[in-house]
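Appendix B, example 12.
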Amino acid sequence: DAQRKNASAWSSRWRSALGGIEPADCVVTLLIDQSGSMKGRPIEAAAATVQLIDEALCALSVSTEILGFST
């Protein structure tokens, strides 16, 4: 399955980029702008992107936290 091959290749590149750091030793913080300028499609796109990033990192056993801010 092409999607599985892509995920495996991405995982290999990520692990190589960590340079010996175990994914479990990493935490990624995603900070999302929730101000009025993000209303509508921009916040929808940001939410979808964050979800994909979170799922990918979770598959690699990398902890994530998702924070939002406005003004």
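Residues 41-59 form the longest helix (19 residues). The CA atoms of residues 11 and 17 lie 10 Å apart.
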